[in-house]
Amino acid sequence: MRFDIVTVFPEIFAGALEAGIIRRARQAGLVEIRTVNLRDFATSRHRSVDDRPYGGGEGMVLTPGPLFAAVEHCRGAEPAASSSVILLTPQGETWNQNLALQASRLGHVVLICGRYEGVDQRVIDTLVDKEISIGDYVLSGGEFAALVVVDTVIRLLPGALGNAESSVNESFSAGGLDYPQYTRPAEFRGMVVPDVLLSGDHARIREWRRAKALEKTRSRRPDLVPGDAGCVR
Ligand code: 6GU
């Protein structure tokens, strides 16, 4: 799989894409990730990539020229249909595990990091396949959202996780939140690990974990409890 990230701040990505599971997936050849500096595709004398909105109002809007040129550069000779262009914007559909799973089946994804107060609508109408937001809060731009998309998708690529990190029992793939975890020591500052976890009785442990996970999901995220009112699955 391949990601191209179109951004005016490529320096944001350096550290984040060179650590942990993302680094290992890149080294294993499971994913190729490039950052593309939008400013490299500006043609004006001052290499600007934004301008004032027609009709007036606050803020600056990303102009179509550099964005079209950058995406065309990312596509190279490949047909437009074999890549998907995602714009990171607070106006988008909210990202979730199911959208990540769909994206993990794509071959080539171009992520455009929205900046300033918006993006020219002609880019959205004719270049962008999907607009994505990562939640109901305001980011300064799409860069951190692009990292969320890349991380969540890479975890789903076959071979990206070792056995120890297997996503089978994780929150959300399993449909709810996780049960509480404990490790050594068995007693820390007077706080003890629940007896059942030290019992060696794996049937009882499984049942305790299932009950704890359900209790936590019911109280924090009732929308995720299968069969309950409000569950979105
Ligand atoms: Cl994708 N962009 C911005 N600017 N803010 C956001 C977002 C994206 N997702 C949530 N908030």
What do you see in this structure?
The protein is an alpha/beta fold. The chain has two domains: 153 residues, SPOUT methyltransferase, trefoil knot domain (Alpha/beta knot), CATH 3.40.1280.10; 51 residues, Trp Operon Repressor, Chain A (Orthogonal Bundle), CATH 1.10.1270.20. Helices cover 31% and strands 18% of the residues. The strands form three sheets. The protein has a five-stranded parallel sheet with strand order 2-1-6-5-8. Strand 9 and strand 10 form a beta hairpin. The two termini are 27 Å apart. The model has no long low-confidence stretch (mean pLDDT 94). The site of 6-chloroguanine (6GU) has 13 residues, from strand 5. 6-chloroguanine binds next to strand 5.
Could you outline the blueprint of secondary structure elements for this entry?
Layout: E1 2-7, H1 13-16, H2 20-27, E2 32-37, E3 50-51, E4 61-62, H3 64-75, E5 84-94, H4 97-103, E6 108-113, E7 118-119, H5 121-126, E8 130-133, H6 143-154, E9 187-188, E10 191-192, H7 195-198, H8 202-220
Parallel strand pairs: 1-2, 1-6, 4-7, 5-6, 5-8
Antiparallel strand pairs: 3-4, 9-10
Quick structural summary:
With 233 residues, the protein is α/β, with parallel strands linked by helices. 31% of the residues lie in helices and 18% in strands. The strands form three sheets. The chain has a five-stranded parallel β-sheet.
